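Probable Xaa-Pro aminopeptidase PEPP (Aspergillus rambellii), 465 aa
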Amino acid sequence: MTSLETILAAKYPAKAHARRVADGLKALGHNGGVIYLEAQKTRLIEDNDEPVPFRQRRPFFYLSGCLLPDSALIYNIDADQLTLFIPPISPDDVIWSGLPMSPTEALAQYDVDNVLETTEVNATLATIAAANGANSIAFAIGEQVSEDTKFQGFSTISLDILKGVIEKARVVKDTYEVALLRKANDISAKAHIAAVKASKAATNEREIEGAFISTCIANGAREQSYHPIVACGKNGATLHYGRNDEDLIDPSTQRRKDNVLIDAGGEYRTYCADITRVFPLNGKFLPETRQIYEIVLEMQLECIKMLKEGVQWEDVHAHAHRIAIKGLLKLGILRGSEDQLFDKRISVAFFPHGLGHYLGMDTHDTGGNPNYEDTDTMFRYLRVRGKLPAGSVITVEPGIYFCPFIIDPFTKSPELKKYIDEDVLARYWAVGGVRIEDNIHITKEGSENLTTAPKFIEEMESLAA
């Protein structure tokens, strides 16, 4: 088996991605032409001479592997030629930032056929149009084309198709992309472990966040996939809690709070990890938290077992709800039959979000085809709909939350309140929320888990002890 580092030592497969996108255009009836994409522009912070933090445009990176700002690319589909354009040397910039990458260096680093300067974009487009004849077509993304870019000689300029074709192509990852995701997960696993260890001496959520981010940076993931969520106690009931500034001491008891939910992932060369763990601040889960943790872990493990090429994602999501219902019934929080509770969507009060989402260059990656207008509350927030293809990478992140804002409408409903025992429920408000999230690569026969961060109860308690 080829090692991870050996795979990543090779060039990012930009040319293969360009061909895949061309095939996507061909499937829509478009043969030949050129694909034109621009990198993110350098922009300055308002009232400041510092640049805005740089984030490369994902369509551009997918067809270039290049992280340089102010660049461009042309893929001549008919000639199967991929050309990267990088900014010319600016003497003023060299004074402050040193020499930039040269075309020769770029050609050695990136999987492209030619490297030119951006001053040659228009001339190159015109030359290709003249060679391709009267029916030449250029594909670009409308809102990502500079005003000074001219498509001289092209009979058709399509600005509304390319983005969707690229997003569809990105769903299925190749070996190199999976290696990047695995590397992001490996770094993030180290950071999750460091965060748990840092919690022993921490007095505030932000110290745990700091330990996570510093470990990512030290291991090569300078950027975060998203702003980390570090939620202690009841804060874990807020799905996208982001303050990360609350003290770990409960002011009413002067005791450390019971548990922390941390949802965080590092970004490695634009590819994201997205991992959630819950751990006890005091070394041992309280009985109520442990009970909920066991249910959520069963939800996740059972759903992962179902995963393989062609599985219907809605079926996996529904199965997670079935397990949640069974577990909450056993605890006495819910009342009624499993089928009643499922049909009435009572479990949505405790598990309101979708089971997961595609993962890649974006945390919530492209191609999921969500339907947020769905009137069925169990499926409304699913970010992925339909059958999973082999090669896709998806998160599996079930959770159970005790959020009054979500649960109160159920307990106050004349029709639905009979299904929830509020006296039993009262014992679980302090749990906040439990979510466990891993990143799963779908294969023809099953799946492989890219996430190596500890998650079993004994592991989490041992780390936190």
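Residues 317 and 444 are 20 Å apart (CA to CA). The mean pLDDT is 96. ok done for today
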